[in-house]
Design brief:
The complex is a heterodimer of chains A (752) and B (551). Chain A has 752 residues and is α+β, with helices and mostly antiparallel strands. In chain A, 40% of the residues lie in helices and 28% in strands. In chain A, strands 6, 7, 8, 9 and 10 form a 5-stranded antiparallel sheet that branches. Chain B contains 16 helices and 12 strands. The chains are: A alpha+beta (752), B alpha+beta (551). At the A-B interface, helix 2, helix 4, helix 5, helix 6 and helix 7 of A face helix 2, strand 2, helix 3, helix 8 and helix 9 of B.
């Protein structure tokens, strides 16, 4: 090395330039080569980096605490906050609303609810969190409905300014709920659009229901309010919680320490008691009850810290019963506070020992848990975008933190196991990502997609493996060089055919054809091999001077017309067979007589089309392995007196088997990741069955269909990246394995 | 027989059978696309027959027979037909009766037992329209502004003359709409962006604002002038109508402004038909699609595919060749090169949709989003490069086809005889010079093979493009007369996606079917030709090396 270096000093002018270029080229080439590796790792790491946040634990950080805005002389009945997580609102039991800056607790003004003189606040109830409606029950049997409003304006410097206020949507004059004037001890409200429903418990133990509907008179432009009231009966014991579902059709009363009674209140004048259900285990007491966003699920908390989810499930007779769905990891102490998220199925739970937990219903997950403040938790709030937490502790302080909890829907159980979704009658595997409404419960089960992928690959391989391996054996060992000259390029063209063409033919031509000639198509799988064997036998009995004219190695060409004849015959026999055996319509017969569902775009069609696509992949690798078996091995075997078939069986296949195996693996990798054929030749419904006559939805097709519509950064978007990552990882492992096997085989061939 | 089985011959035949089935399948698919794609341009005979309705009444049918199949009688009975006899299967025909605007449907299956004899009357007129699909009927008269100017035997020559006139007017209107109005819109958009850019930079002062407003006023004035010219032309083209008797006996007026072609299919002679065929073929390749892509040509899709493939080739060739040269000439034989080789083979096996996901996430959202923030902030929130487009598509495909180029180039390099390399080095050439002057030129046919295979792969690849830039209908081509001529951020149309979209997302699938077959045939043809070229090039190359090795 040193010598070369010293020589360089003596080299001048043009020579130096040449050497410079030489080393430059070397670096460029090295850089280029390495960038290929970088590209591959980039794909992997990029996919992984987008998927990773899904599995990151929830982070609750930047805790700050400040004195309760408005002091602690009065008790907090409710904490609320506005969407930008800037302003919080605290409702107290003396009828005051304190607005405050959520970041530092600075007061933003306080508003005294307008209450007539001489009347006191006796109860409070809040509606759906996203609706900001609340109600104060008064000591004279009346109630005031209030609503928080936040007006966003931009000032001169283009800075956002949010102005909170309190409105009285039903007027400032309190509404009369109880005409006898008994004080209202507990109250609940739900108001959306033009309809408002209230339920109140009076001091003398009556449970009153009132529904208000306001309609706009089109002529006079005045609001007319229609009011319906009734009394609810049949609830025994101490009434603890009153919950009106957001659509104002169901009412749940938590009472007696262990029961929830469900009323159907779609008709406000005639509430109907549907069911009284014990919702806690023996020896436990119901201490908290709330309803999740969307108005389906009740969450029940007990004095032992247990948490359960319940919702209405429809049975075969169309009757709804309140059913226990799942339990969550218990809290340590008595559950005191249970607050739902504004738009998702999450909730915050707090207990009397000061610990707070963040839960998510669909994924059955405890996302985060910690001690906050000192002693019992008095009130809690999770901000509308679920990015902040505000906790009032017994120590008189409000604790506020940032929450990073964007993907609570994802857990092992929600991705891979049966999940009991709201308004379903049993746990199921479902992939349904499209959100029709804000409070839609997304269903992200990867199981049907994975099963669909494997199902597609299985049926494709069922056709492709025998076909490709037989062809490869013939092509690599028996075929004459001349036939090889056109047969191999034909197979290469088969490999190069765009899958969109195959998918299109499968979906628009093959699928109707198969439906119309099912018996014939199925028959051809038997008939074609049989006819081939018959033809071979026939050939055997032909006079030798005739057969000798065809050289060995051309059998496949001879058989092509036979195959065409076989297919034609099966096609021709199909309809008579269907007429004779299956009442003239085999798919219909399958459905009615055998109970097998038949879809036009089914696994059989995909199996044929994708089998077609995969066959050449397997063929070329397996054929290569067979063809490169060293000639001296085979000639040796033949010289020792073995027949060609024995040589093939005992020498060639044995030597080439690793190559054949890797061919099958690579073929499977291709079948798993194929998109267009599956997209076009199946109905793309994510179902969990293995029948050959139904369709499926694969990971790849799912990505192809949903990716363009998925909003960037959402759980859905990232889950699609997970799908892609799964596909990548699967093919990566399969291909690497196959590649290693092939490499070893190549060295082996070299050594013998 | 026993001996025959023992000898293993049946097994050999069964392996031969496997290959025979595979070959039959390949040729079957090729034949299928050709047999269904090519007749699309041939003028079809128009059938006239009668059909017994479900209520027993007889109606006249006029149209083209599109398909014929054997179907279970049970299914027909289920859909309300009464089929005489007790056969289990019967034939049915798919009739394209056109006149969608009159009848509400244009394709319908009719069971053969309920149809009368087929006749092919000479004077049935086929009218190809730009809207509502074909029209079939017996020509009654030609009208100008509602007044009959020719009828009977004089109607057809008069009609053809007037159709010619209407077509010329249409072409003029089309040109103005597409070019002149396109120019004006482009200028207005440019002005808006300029204004916004100045505003963002805080430099929009009185003078600049005034000049922009003046230009805008001037452009709007031009627009109004074009619009008035267009209005006049539109009034002109709406002058004539033809009236014809359709199959249920009604006489219907068809405005010539919508007509692109009229002919009597049953009286065309073979020469006419051949001329017609090639005219249609030409139009198919050069015209824009109409009627939600179910009619007209596929020019934008061809153009988009070609441009995509060219851009991809420019990106993939240097990368692929450099990587192959590195692997063959510079890297040693250690663990590292083994890993690279496995990685390259892996890259070839990764499902194409995964590349699409990567392209969308990395190129479009990450890279494109950043470019937008840095250079195109005036257009935000509308994305420029931060949305799928042809640049990102060709980059994605370049990565996808990289292994194809690497593998073929490497094969070519490996076959260059050692003696040549050593000779060059011995004469004093540096390694780079040997590479550039001797090795690469000799391996260039191999690179060419790689390129052709890459192009064939890219031309047919659809799944990743659905994510990174393809659209069903692109308003403008990625290459046009507006500065900077190449619009790399634009979305484009693609043959493969066109097949998927028209075949599966189209509202009128029966109408679209022949066009999809024709498109599919074109794509298959391109790919077969490319592959055969690659194969023959490779064979020639191997032959050459064999000769060289003998030296």
């Amino acid at each position: 090395m040193d010598e070369t270096k010293s020589n360089l000093h003596t080299i001048t002018g043009a020579m130096r330039g040449r050497l410079l270029i030489d080393s430059l080229v070397k670096y460029v080439m090295t850089f280029g080569g390495i960038s290929v590796i970088v590209a591959i790792s980039l794909i992997f790491f990029y996919l992984a980096s987008v998927s990773y946040p899904l599995f990151k634990p929830v982070e609750v950080s930047d805790w700050t605490s400040y004195k309760m805005p408005g002091g602690i002389s009065a008790n907090t009945v409710h904490i609320s906050s506005e969407e930008q997580r800037e302003i919080g609102a605290r409702f107290t039991d003396n009828g005051v609303v304190h607005f405050f800056n959520m970041h530092n607790g600075k007061p933003f003004g306080e508003i005294n609810i307008k209450i007539p003189d001489g009347v006191a606040v006796t109860s409070f109830g809040a509606g759906d969190p996203s609706d900001y409606t609340a109600i104060y029950g008064l000591s004279d049997g009346r109630a005031v409905v209030v609503k928080q409003t936040y007006t966003v304006t931009f000032d001169a410097a283009n800075k956002r300014v949010i102005q909170p206020a309190i409105e009285y949507p039903l007027g400032e004059t309190p509404l009369v709920l109880d005409k006898t004037g008994s004080a209202i001890q507990k109250i609940a409200i739900q108001g959306k659009g033009d309809a408002t429903t209230m339920v109140a418990l009076t001091k003398d133990g009556r449970l009153l229901l009132k529904g208000l509907t306001s309609t706009k008179n089109l002529l006079t432009d005045e609001n007319q309010v229609e009011s319906v009231s009734s009394t609810l009966t049949g609830v025994s014991g101490d009434i603890q919680d009153i919950i009106i579902e957001v659509k104002q059709r169901e009412l749940y009363i938590g009472h007696g320490g262990q029961f929830v009674t469900h009323f159907d209140i779609s008709d406000k004048s005639q509430p109907r008691l549907v069911q009284k259900q014990k919702v806690v285990a023996d020896g436990e007491k119901l201490t908290a009850l709330n309803i999740l966003s969307g108005g389906f699920s009740l969450i029940v908390g007990t004095d032992k810290g247990n948490l359960g989810q319940w919702f209405l499930v429809r049975d075969a007779n169309n009757n709804y019963t309140l059913t226990h769905i799942r339990d969550f990891k218990p809290m340590k102490g008595k559950v005191t506070t249970l607050v739902p998220e504004y738009f998702r199925k999450g909730f915050v739970v707090a207990d009397n020992q000061g610990s707070v937990g963040l839960y998510y219903a669909t994924s059955q997950k405890l996302l985060w848990q910690d001690l906050v403040g000192k002693g019992e938790i008095k009130a809690a709030e999770i901000t509308p975008r679920a990015n902040g937490l505000a906790i009032q502790s017994a120590d008189g302080k409000l604790y506020v933190a940032n929450v990073h909890n964007e993907f609570p829907e994802v857990s092992f159980s929600s991705l891979w196991q049966k999940v009991w979704y709201e308004s379903y009658d049993k746990p199921e595997f479902i992939w349904q990502s499209a959100a029709s409404t804000n409070d839609f419960e997304p269903k992200f089960s990867l199981s049907p997609l994975t099963l669909g992928t494997l199902k597609a690959a299985f049926y494709a391989m069922l056709l492709a493996t025998p076909l490709a391996l037989l062809s490869a054996i013939y092509g690599g060992y028996f075929m004459s060089p001349k036939m090889r000259g056109w047969a191999k390029p034909s197979i290469e063209i088969m490999e190069a055919l765009p899958t969109v063409i195959l998918g299109f033919l499968a979906g628009l031509w093959l699928a109707p054809l198969v439906e119309n000639n099912l018996a014939g198509i199925l028959l051809s799988f038997v008939l074609v091999p049989a006819i081939i064997m018959l033809a071979a036998l026939f050939w055997h009995y032909l006079p030798e001077n005739l057969t000798n004219r065809v050289r060995p190695g051309w059998e496949a060409a001879l058989l092509m017309p036979v195959v065409i004849f076989g297919i034609w015959m099966a096609y021709d026999l199909g309809h008579p067979i269907e007429a004779y055996l299956f009442g003239g319509d085999m798919p219909h017969w399958l459905t009615t007589e055998m109970g097998i569902r038949y879809e036009q775009r089914n696994s059989l069609v995909v199996g044929i089309a994708m089998g077609f696509a995969v066959t050449p992949t397997i063929f070329s690798i397996a054929e290569d392995a067979i063809f490169s078996v060293p000639k001296h091995l085979t000639t040796g075997s033949l010289a020792l007196g073995a027949t060609p078939w024995q040589t093939l069986k005992n020498v060639v296949l044995l030597t080439a088997s690793p190559g054949i195996f890797s061919g099958v693996m690579i073929g499977m990798g291709r079948a798993v990741g194929e998109t267009m054929i599956v997209l076009m030749a199946t109905g793309n419904t994510a179902v969990m069955d293995l029948s050959i006559f139904t369709g499926f939805r694969t990971l790849a097709a799912n990505v192809g269909v949903e990716m363009p519509e998925a909003a960037v950064g959402t759980t859905h978007f990232r889950l699609l990246f997970v799908c892609a990552l799964v596909l990548f990882a699967f093919t990566f492992i399969v291909n690497t394995l196959a590649e290693l096997i092939r490499e070893r085989l190549r060295t082996k061939y070299k050594s013998i | 027989m026993k001996e025959w089985i023992k000898s293993g011959t049946p097994w050999i035949w069964s392996t031969a059978g496997g290959l025979a089935v595979a070959l039959v399948m390949v040729f079957g698919v090729l034949w299928m696309t050709a047999a269904r794609g090519l007749p699309y341009f041939w003028p079809s005979q128009v059938v006239e027959t009668a059909f017994i309705e479900k209520d027993g009444s007889k109606i006249r049918l006029i149209g083209e027979i599109r398909e014929r199949e054997e179907v279970a009688v049970r299914r027909l009975v289920e859909s309300g037909f009464t089929i005489p006899g007790n056969e289990k299967f019967t034939t049915r025909y798919l009739l394209k009766s056109g006149n969608r605007d009159v009848a509400g449907f244009d394709f319908k299956w009719y069971p053969a037992p309920l149809l009368s004899k087929f006749t092919y009357p000479d004077n049935v007129l086929t009218v190809e329209r730009r809207e509502w699909g074909n029209f079939y009927g017996h020509l009654k008269s030609v009208k100008e502004n509602g007044v009959v100017v020719a009828n009977g035997d004089f109607a057809l020559p008069e009609l053809q003359k007037r159709v010619e006139r209407a077509r010329k007017l249409f072409d003029e209107i089309f040109r103005i709409e597409k070019q002149e109005i396109g120019d004006v819109n482009f200028e207005l958009e440019k002005l808006r962006l300029k204004e916004r850019k100045l505003q963002l930079a805080g430099k929009l002062d009185e003078a600049a604002n005034q000049s922009i407003q003046n230009q805008r006023l001037e452009t709007n004035g031009r627009f109004a002038e074009i619009q008035s010219r267009l209005d006049k032309l539109r009034a002109e083209i709406g002058r004539d109508t033809l009236s014809a008797e359709v199959m249920d006996g009604k006489v219907v007026d068809v405005p010539l402004s919508k007509v692109s072609e009229v002919y009597r299919a049953n009286s065309l002679n073979i020469g006419d038909k051949i001329g017609f065929y090639f005219r249609k073929l030409y139009a198919f390749g050069t015209e824009d699609p109409r009627e939600a892509n179910t009619e007209g040509g596929i020019f934008p899709a061809i153009f988009g595919t070609v441009m995509l493939v060219i851009m991809m080739s420019i990106l993939v060739m240097p990368l692929g060749v450099i990587a192959a040269v590195y692997m063959r000439e510079y890297a040693g034989h250690g663990m590292f090169i083994r890993v690279i080789r496995i990685a390259v083979n892996n890259l070839a096996g990764v499902p194409s949709i995964v590349y699409g996901v990567f392209g969308l996430g990395f190129f479009v959202y990450s890279l494109g989003g950043t470019i937008d923030q840095l250079f195109f902030s005036e257009a935000l929130p509308a994305p420029t490069f931060g949305s799928p487009g042809i640049l990102w598509s060709s980059l994605t495909l370049a990565i996808l086809t990289l292994p194809v180029v690497i593998v073929s180039t490497e094969e070519g390099l490996a076959r260059v005889p050692r003696s040549l390399r050593e000779g060059s080095l011995a004469l004093g050439a540096t390694k780079a010079e040997t590479l550039w002057r001797t090795v690469l030129p000799m391996a260039s046919p191999a690179m060419m093979t790689g390129l052709i295979l890459a192009i064939a792969r890219a031309a047919g690849e659809t799944a990743p493009l659905m994510l990174v830039g393809v659209v069903k209908l692109a308003p403008s081509l990625p290459l046009d007369g507006h500065f900077p001529y190449f619009h790399l951020e634009r979305q484009f149309m693609h043959l493969g996606f066109h097949i998927y979209d028209v075949g599966f997302q189209s509202p009128n699938i029966e109408a679209a079917r022949p066009l999809v077959y024709a498109t599919a045939f074109l794509l298959v043809l391109v790919i077969v030709v490319l592959n055969l070229a690659a194969v023959s090039l490779r064979n020639k190359l191997r032959e050459n090396y064999r000769v060289l090795e003998g030296i």
